[in-house]
Amino acid sequence: MNATVFISTTGNGLARAERSADGGWLVESILESQKVSSLAADPHNPGVVYAGTQGNGLLRSDDSGKTWRPAGMSGYIVKSIAVSPAEPDLIYAGTKPPLIFVSRDGGKNWTELESFRQMRRWWWLQPAELPPITYIQSIALSPTNPQVIVAGLEACGVFRSLDSGRTWTGHMKGSVRDCHTMTFHAMNGDWVYEAGGTGAGVSFSRDAGATWTQPGTGLDRRYGWTCAADPARPEVWYASLSPLGRFPNMAPLAHVDGEANAHIFRRTGDAPWEKLGGGLPQPLNYMAYALLTDPTAPGHLYAGLSNGDVWHTADYGDTWQQLPFNLGGIHRSLIML
User: Fold this and answer.
1) Residue 171 placed within a domain
2) What whole-number distance in Å separates Cα of residue 289 and Cα of residue 181?
């Protein structure tokens, strides 16, 4: 296992777990006075991490999350952050209301992509939180072409740009309109993956987001939250899903701690989805809000649950072990360094 630091949003600041030389883990709470909603690590600068807050813009850490400083966008609710793997210092941030900003100097200066503002429609609303206006839930950046961006909105669609955000196309037919997580493959810029709350709960693209498919065969639940793909085999990918809500309130069970009734699934090529066990609780009573792969370790996958537990597999999800620490909560972002 290569991971030495995990950082999660807990709903009230951050939790940070660091592995010591003797293999033990130290967990500490950070930024307890801040409401942090999103996290992203810089693939070009080890130790650099960005955090999006609920009203105080962006924060930046240069020491793997130990200390933080402002990084612009003061006053904005930053719901998503993406750091380009293809171009150093290129960062995108998505907000509520649904706006997208770009920095080309590591967060020193920010510019709104006004072309995306022009895409907004009066009916862009969502039921997840008040006020009901939607927000940029996820931004995915191509690992090979810095001009390709795919952005997903809560309940309102998936949008694509091929020119660094100067123009946009959306909603991309076949993708999940209620986007929760969207990610490119770590190395292959043709593959994009999505998990969301409508349709099959998952979708993917093999042509950099131009066309999308929702492969539902093998899934016995349809409320998807997160997804990830093996770094060496883009045809192997994973998703966490739970059932839709029960009558009368219809709230998604994923967000009811102790009652998520969720599973992690694996898909290989065009085969049906497989439900993963191998030591994982069956079902997961706490939603897997995070699935993380290690670009240097094919077959390895980490699952972060809403109660703060983190599980690890080294064999593509066949067998799992729980890591010996608890973050106190993962609501709903987790990164590893």
Assistant:
1) yes
2) 9
Residues of the chain with pLDDT under 70: 246-250
pTM of the predicted model as reported, rounded to 2 decimal places: 0.96
pLDDT given for residue 250 in this prediction: 66
Identify the CATH number of the domain in which residue 126 sits: 2.130.10.10
Distance CA 68, CA 89 (A): 18
Quote the domain boundaries for residue 276: 79-336
CA 294 to chain CA centroid, Å, is 14
* Number of structural domains found in the chain: 1
Asked whether residue 28 is domain-assigned, the answer is no
The pLDDT of residue 21 is 86
Structural domain contains residue 22: no
Beta-bridged to residue 335, according to DSSP, are: 7
Beta bridge partners of 94: 80, 100
Q: How many CB atoms lie within 10 A of CB 168?
A: 18
What pLDDT is recorded for position 122? 87
Q: What is the pLDDT of residue 246?
A: 65
